[in-house]
Design goal:
This protein is mainly β and 71 residues long. It has no helices and six strands. Strand 4 and strand 5 form a beta hairpin.
């Protein structure tokens, strides 16, 4: 009777956890102070009026208002 020894798992099937980046509030949506608008790596989006950028490049509102993106 043929027997096969137990084999280890494949090394190439590991995957990193997602970072949950991206736009959290879209244009036209209401934001209150402290709401995160965009989570990003680097400056894909730059802050405008009424928002600030955190150390990790997160853009968040500092006043209440309507979110607006412009080119």
């Amino acid at each position: 009777m043929a027997h096969t020894k137990a084999q280890g798992s494949v090394r190439g099937n590991r995957d990193s956890i997602s970072k949950r980046l991206g736009v959290k509030l879209y244009g036209g949506e209401k934001a209150i102070a402290g709401n995160i608008i965009v989570r990003q790596k680097g400056t894909k989006f730059f802050p405008g009026d009424g928002v600030m950028m955190g150390r990790d490049y997160t853009i968040f509102s500092i006043i209440e208002g309507i979110v607006k993106f412009k080119i």
